[in-house]
Input
Amino acid sequence: KNEVEQSPQNLTAQEGEFITINCSYSVGISALHWLQQHPGGGIVSLFMLSSGKKKHGRLIATINIQEKHSSLHITASHPRDSAVYICAVRPGNQFYFGTGTSLTVIP
Amino acid sequence: KAGVTQTPRYLIKTRGQQVTLSCSPISGHRSVSWYQQTPGQGLQFLFEYFSETQRNKGNFPGRFSGRQFSNSRSEMNVSTLELGDSALYLCASSLHLTSGGANEQFFGPGTRLTVL
Output
């Protein structure tokens, strides 16, 4: 049983396309995190959100706590957005991670 | 401010050996968490330290242990290494304890451990 499910697992897009990555979770949480991992391993925290929507540059994250669902959107995608995107939740003392969405943006 | 640093970046060990990995958090951060990432299992939470005390622990065997020093630097140790311990080990720091997940974490570059 996976507490966090992400879709799609893999995504290929043309430069400039609008991209959506989805995350569903089955546990009660106070916040959800979106992480970005580039080849080579380094992880960057993109968003931490507990309600509504947050925007940073071309990235937008939304969450619906009642429906236990979050989406990460990338507008005007660029090859440098190619990375693995991971959502994570922490109910209580455990961290649960999605398996990640591998995004490739083709010029 | 300098980011989270981890040493060493790469490590090769043989089965049965033990290994110690080090993590220096961002200055002023008091919480350090450790994660294991493998192709098969993805990211998994190992443990979290705050004020030199282990506060939370994931589902890993006792061969995995850690500690935190008074300057918030942390080490994790894996004893009696197994082939399956080959992984990227990441640490992350945050200002406060991450209970409830409502504190932003800053990740280090990771230590890639290969067990032969």
